[in-house]
């Protein structure tokens, strides 16, 4: 087993679904509605009549008369690679990605068609708003995101189509599925009792990529898993690989297992989770039936006060670099920035330092330590009031320093409310029914590959 540190600049938010640790399932187990191959009444010594060539790949399709062209596939592939910082290293990998993208486009087309069949459409204004929000996530204006997509070999139309599919499908689920999902009070109370009984038990918030394997291809699958981890270390997000390659039922949720206790995991995964640090990825880990790659989002003890839940009062100083700043120039300016900020005498001296450095100051009084990036969490746990972090950032996004002005430590941990548990149970069941609905759409669709 290999454990590698991932560099992540975005904050890791707590997942509401983690409140249901006592009901979580391990992703690579057989889903409840799976049909064993034995039920198909397959012959023991079957003979294939006719010829098939596994090397023939058909990159385009017609889905219920809706055409998906090779250009659609290539533009979506370029968009996914650019937005997720993915480097396609070989023609074989490119072809594999094209097939994955094609399957995704087929599902997207089926979802939009199903929504329209129920008179659900997404307006241009709604897509515009979602596009602007997405641009903001990438620290860009909508025009800058448009320019970025075009330079990457993609197009605005491809991203807007994906946005339309996600909005239409979500609206269809709210109309056709959510009203018919019910959770009883007895179920909620049973979960609360189990959580009380588990107080103090270690649990982990994990994400997983599950890759099935057999003795004939396990070396190849293991090598593919290693390639994924290497690209993650270069900045590609774990969630992209989970959604694209994972064969677990959690792929639709970017591989998110939620909060789980060691006893709920296979021994190999429990041992790996126990040795990981927050923000690390482990794997490929061999388990019965294949390999798993784990990402540790967070850890805690059930219903026990955690220092990472401390709320901080922070002042942030930021300096930005002019365009064209080299790495060496950025390092020199960051060193000067750090020298000035480390000599500050508490938060009251921040304004003087900001004036000297021509830095921007932003205040925030409600930041939890666990909501910060993993690299900063460890620093903040050891920081005293009045002290500043070392400089952090990048040449293109500027360099920052956080100064701790106050800290309120958690006094105790409490049970989640009954409403929170009910809401999360309902969402789990909506997700299961959504998976079944999509499988039904695939089964009934007329799809012609070209």
From TrEMBL:
Coiled coil feature spans: none
Residues making up the signal peptide according to the UniProt record: 1-26
SUPFAM superfamilies on file: FKBP-like, Triger factor/SurA peptide-binding domain-like
Name of one Pfam family that matches: Rotamase
Keyword annotations from UniProtKB, A to Z: Chaperone, Isomerase, Periplasm, Rotamase, Signal
Keyword Signal: yes
Keyword Chaperone among UniProt keywords: yes
InterPro entries per record: OMP_Chaperone_SurA, PPIase_dom_sf, PPIase_PpiC, SurA_N, Trigger_fact/SurA_dom_sf
Gene Ontology terms for molecular function: peptidyl-prolyl cis-trans isomerase activity
PpiC domain sequence ranges: 201-298
UniProt-recorded name of the protein: Parvulin-like PPIase
Source organism (scientific name): Stakelama marina
